[in-house]
């Protein structure tokens, strides 16, 4: 069985998407709508947990939101005016129903449901200690570590127990928690993973991206700040910041690929920023060509920016079918090869005899780029030049993004010439790390800590990596979070 997303298989996988509603009748239906808008962040599984004032109700399933949460009987089985949902692509833990979130547990303080976007980078160490002390884990997800830390905390109130748990974890997290006392939304002190807050009439809504607020008709209020806990109890909303302040380091790849183009981050349109990255790429890596062609769909905004800056016409030289299922059985290599064209096919009449510039957002293993270049040559392209709207991905992510081990990253194994030869392109170029920051309206200085987490490009990890193999190469110079003075 082979995925029919051949150009998506070599992408950095989106972390996860979370969505929570407090104070709306039929909250689960709103959560299902919000999860639809966040489906791009995780296509492996989805789940919703609701609270009706007395009991918690959960429905979790493998697969997409559509097909699992578009049935009346499923939504009716999730009553209450408080609900939290999750779409998942596994970064830790196996692909199994027991790892599908929200995770739920009955604690001494009552029910506790949690949806998590990110990755706890010391979860293995914490888990070993918790098991030694008698904890019994029901999943292989790092998120369950948080539940056990709350359950075993010696603090009296649930909120204090939750804060105590968070102070023991390392890495990245945006969390939405539902308890009988109310809903809690929070981000890690560095704000690596995103989380925003909105309003729909009297309801408070939390989501991974602003586009999910748009889809359900909510009004964006603000981002949840790094290190902030927002507590919603009925109509009361309060905010606390229990962690020592540190300079934030949000994930820069949200701008490059993860977020939907119609989302807004820090008052900037993701779509506009991606066009700006493409324009910067045209300045840094010009080439004589006849057409600029995006790799759909993630390369489109950058390709528009490249075309506008360079003056080379933008054309859709790869046509994507949106009506192919995720998998189907392919008996034999010949049919397997033909299956690639079910999802993407070259626009031969346009490409033949042309010098083309292919724009994509990233190169991970390089296998996708190799397929695309080969497709262009088979369609008769005279020259194929590859331009990438991010710097070379040379390091693995440990903060909730499913990246291959470093030995499988093309840029970690080859220089630019070697990568060009591997994908069989006439030329290859990446936007520089400085150019990427410039497109974001920032400057990356080597003598101070950067504004964003760009460890996948630079190896400058913003936190300690307790569970990481110490024998591997990590830039320890910028490992510890810089304190704000």
Automatic annotation (TrEMBL):
**Domain Glutamine amidotransferase type-2: where?**
16-235
One annotated GO biological process = 'de novo' IMP biosynthetic process
Q: Which GO terms describe its molecular function?
A: 4 iron, 4 sulfur cluster binding; amidophosphoribosyltransferase activity; magnesium ion binding
Listed binding positions for Mg(2+) are 298, 360-361
Write down the EC number.
Answer: 2.4.2.14
Q: What is this protein called?
A: Amidophosphoribosyltransferase
Q: Name one Pfam family in it.
A: Pribosyltran
UniProt cross-references to CDD domains, sorted A to Z: GPATase_N, PRTases_typeI
- Function as written in the Swiss-Prot or TrEMBL entry: Catalyzes the formation of phosphoribosylamine from phosphoribosylpyrophosphate (PRPP) and glutamine.
Q: Which residues form the active site?
A: 16
Known pathway:
Purine metabolism; IMP biosynthesis via de novo pathway; N(1)-(5-phospho-D-ribosyl)glycinamide from 5-phospho-alpha-D-ribose 1-diphosphate: step 1/2
Please write the reaction equations for the catalytic activity of this protein.
5-phospho-beta-D-ribosylamine + L-glutamate + diphosphate = 5-phospho-alpha-D-ribose 1-diphosphate + L-glutamine + H2O
Quote the record's cofactor note: Binds 1 Mg(2+) ion per subunit. Binds 1 [4Fe-4S] cluster per subunit.
> Which cofactor(s) does the record list?
Mg(2+); [4Fe-4S] cluster
The enzyme's main class, written as a single word, is transferase
Q: Which UniProt keywords apply?
A: 4Fe-4S, Glutamine amidotransferase, Glycosyltransferase, Iron, Iron-sulfur, Magnesium, Metal-binding, Purine biosynthesis, Transferase
Protein family: In the C-terminal section; belongs to the purine/pyrimidine phosphoribosyltransferase family.
Q: Which organism is it from?
A: Sphingomonas carotinifaciens
> What superkingdom heads the lineage?
Bacteria
Q: Which InterPro entries match?
A: GATase_2_dom (IPR017932), Ntn_hydrolases_N (IPR029055), PRTase-like (IPR029057), PRTase_dom (IPR000836), PurF (IPR005854), PurF_N (IPR035584)
Q: Does the keyword Iron apply?
A: yes
């Amino acid at each position: 069985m082979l995925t029919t997303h051949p150009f998506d298989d070599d992408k950095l996988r989106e972390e996860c998407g979370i969505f929570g509603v407090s104070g709306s009748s039929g909250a689960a239906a709103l959560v299902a709508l919000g999860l639809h808008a966040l489906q791009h962040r995780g296509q492996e599984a989805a789940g919703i947990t609701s609270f009706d004032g007395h009991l918690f109700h959960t429905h979790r399933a493998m697969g997409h939101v559509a097909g699992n949460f578009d049935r009346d009987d499923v939504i009716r089985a999730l009553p209450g005016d408080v609900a939290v949902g999750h779409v998942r692509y596994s970064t830790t833990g196996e692909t199994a129903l027991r790892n599908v979130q929200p995770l739920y547990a009955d604690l001494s303080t009552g029910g506790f449901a949690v949806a998590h976007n990110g990755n706890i980078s010391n979860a293995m160490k914490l888990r070993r200690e918790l098991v030694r002390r008698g904890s019994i884990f029901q999943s292989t997800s790092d998120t369950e570590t948080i539940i056990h830390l709350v359950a075993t905390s010696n603090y009296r109130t649930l909120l204090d127990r939750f804060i105590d748990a968070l102070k023991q974890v390392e890495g990245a997290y945006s969390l939405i928690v539902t308890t009988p006392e109310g809903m809690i939304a929070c981000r890690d002190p560095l704000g690596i993973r995103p989380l925003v807050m909105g309003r729909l009439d009297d309801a408070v809504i939390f989501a991974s991206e602003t586009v999910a607020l748009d889809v359900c008709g909510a009004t964006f209020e603000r981002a949840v700040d790094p290190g902030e806990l927002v507590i919603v109890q009925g109509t009361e909303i309060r905010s606390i910041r229990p962690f020592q302040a540190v300079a934030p380091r949000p994930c820069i790849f949200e701008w490059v690929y993860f977020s939907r183009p119609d989302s807004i981050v820090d008052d900037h349109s993701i779509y506009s920023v991606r066009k700006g990255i493409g324009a910067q790429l045209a300045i840094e890596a010009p080439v004589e060509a006849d057409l600029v062609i995006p790799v759909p769909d993630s390369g489109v905004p950058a390709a528009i920016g490249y075309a506008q800056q360079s003056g080379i016409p933008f054309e859709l030289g790869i046509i994507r079918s949106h009506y192919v299922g995720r998998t189907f059985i392919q008996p034999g290599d010949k049919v397997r090869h033909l299956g690639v064209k079910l999802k993407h096919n070259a626009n031969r009449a346009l490409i033949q005899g042309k010098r083309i510039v292919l724009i994509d957002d990233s190169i991970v293993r390089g296998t996708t780029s190799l397929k695309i270049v080969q497709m262009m040559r088979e369609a008769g392209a005279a020259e194929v030049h590859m331009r990438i709207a991010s710097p070379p991905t040379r390091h693995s992510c440990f903060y909730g993004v499913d990246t291959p081990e470093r030995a499988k990253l093309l840029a970690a194994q080859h220089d630019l010439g070697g990568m060009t030869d591997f994908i069989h392109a006439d030329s290859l170029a990446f936007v520089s790390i400085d150019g990427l920051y410039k497109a974001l309206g920032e400057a990356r200085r080597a003598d101070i800590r950067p504004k964003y987490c760009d460890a996948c490009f630079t190896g400058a990890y913003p936190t300690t990596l307790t569970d990481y193999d110490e024998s591997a190469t990590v830039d320890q110079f910028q490992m510890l979070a810089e304190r704000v003075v």
